[in-house]
Design brief:
Number of strands: 3
Largest sheet: 3 strands, antiparallel
Strand content: 5-15%
Helix content: 55-70%
CATH topology: Arc Repressor Mutant, subunit A
Radius of gyration: 17 Å
Number of domains: 1
Length: 120
């Protein structure tokens, strides 16, 4: 089972983690573990973000003022840093979503043209 999960693992394109974090925070403030769980659940268990990638990305987004953070007490009574999307983060999310749409359309164009050529 573990080998199968590893084989099906999807490597993220550079920049997509930031997009996914911003999108996750669009649904409401969340601590790091909650962000990771949301990404895993919403991706049908295909994407798993490890802490070695997640927290540096959160710190980078915070430094860019796209997210803000504050310490709160979590559901299990632990102190946790909660991140929320800022107004600048909402604007950045809209830009990133637009870029992502353009990228997926461009890749789709290449894949579809390759498919059409093999059918000819």
């Amino acid at each position: 089972m573990a080998k199968q999960q590893y084989r099906n693992r999807v490597e993220l394109l550079q920049g997509t983690l930031d997009l996914m974090i911003l999108q996750t925070l669009q649904w409401g403030a969340q601590h790091g573990y909650g962000i990771s769980v949301a990404i895993r659940n919403r991706s049908g268990e295909m994407l798993q973000v490890d802490t070695g990638s997640l927290y540096p990305a959160l710190h980078r987004l915070e430094k860019q003022k796209w997210v803000a953070a504050e310490w709160k007490i979590s559901e299990n009574k632990q102190r946790a840093k909660y991140y929320r999307l800022t107004a600048a983060g909402k604007r950045q999310l809209a830009q990133e979503r637009s870029r992502w749409q353009q990228l997926t359309e461009a890749i789709g164009g290449v894949l579809n043209s390759a498919k059409n050529e093999t059918e000819s």
